[in-house]
Amino acid sequence: MTTGTTPEGTAGEQAASQWVRGMFGRIAPRYDLLNHLLSFNLDKRWRARTVGRVSPILDRPDSRVLDLCCGTGDVLLALESRARRPLLASDFCHPMLVEARRKIDARGLRSPLVESDALSLPLAEASLDLITVAFGFRNLANYQRGLEEMLRVLRPGGVAAILEFSQPTNSVFRALCGFFSTRVLPRVGGIVSGSPDAYSYLPESIRKFPGAEELAEEMRRTGFSRVEFERMTGGAVALHLGYK
Ligand SMILES: C[S@@+](CC[C@H](N)C(=O)[O-])C[C@H]1O[C@@H](n2cnc3c(N)ncnc32)[C@H](O)[C@@H]1O
């Protein structure tokens, strides 16, 4: 599997990580709008499906849950609404957390937000029952370390749920998605966000990201068991689940 994300013009993990944090910081105020617009609102369905799959854990009143790379908090909002109690969320990009805080407060919810790197979480070993990460894993500078860190903080029996872009299985649909993400998305995303580099990074990072089978294999190699995945929207997105 590729080591981690490699934005154009960066060399090494630290530079990649800094670039990612800076880029999300610049697009934070427009992130939600663009997400819904450029996915034709399908992102809401993908997140809802993820929350549905982990709902048995959320329904346990004592379960400890972290939404990793929470961004502006859409997954967290859905998780907390389902669990009906504060959960935990983290991200390393301050402006994204500011957006998340605003949305959480507006809904009268109470989850605390932690500003931290997913590759080095300020959490004790075996302290969580569930980690969700939606469209964040692909941006990590080191995938292996990201998986190891999740495994470290999960309790035995705990679950990691990784929702991420993937490669459509049908070649025609794959070509169509490729056209959309390399021709349409960078233009519309660049104009609306004012950060063209962010929306040329997006298709590039999806193209370089491992396929669903490969990610599942990497999760197994890291030590997750009962790894399974489901493809959504023809494989454009995949949800992986793995148990500690
Ligand atoms: C595409 S956004 C996804 C946000 C949210 N989960 C969602 O579903 O909309 C990716 C997020 O991952 C965060 N991120 C990327 N690398 C990270 C890292 N190493 N540690 C913590 N957060 C990271 C970014 O700051 C950004 O907010």
Give an account of the 3D structure:
The protein has a 7-stranded mixed beta sheet with strand order 3-2-1-4-5-7-6, with helices on both faces. It contains 10 helices and 7 strands. α8 (171-193) runs antiparallel to α9. The protein is globular. The protein is of the alpha/beta class. It has helices at residues 13-27, 31-38, 42-53, 55-58, 74-83, 94-106, 143-153, 171-193, 196-208, 212-222; strands at 65-68, 88-91, 113-115, 128-134, 154-165, 225-232, 237-243. It binds S-adenosylmethionine. The site of S-adenosylmethionine has 21 residues, from α1 and α5.
| Global Rg | 17 Å
Task: Give me the number of helical elements.
Answer: 10
Helix content: 40-55%
Proportion of strand residues? 15-25%
How are the strands ordered across the major sheet? 3-2-1-4-5-7-6
Question: What is the count of β-strands?
Answer: 7
Provide the low-confidence segments as ranges: none
What structural class results from the helix and strand content?
A: alpha/beta
Net shape: globular
Element order: H for helix, E for strand: HHHHEHEHEEHEHHHEE
Ligand list: S-adenosylmethionine
First-last Cα distance: 21 Å
How would you sum up this structure in a few lines?
The protein is 49% helix and 18% strand.
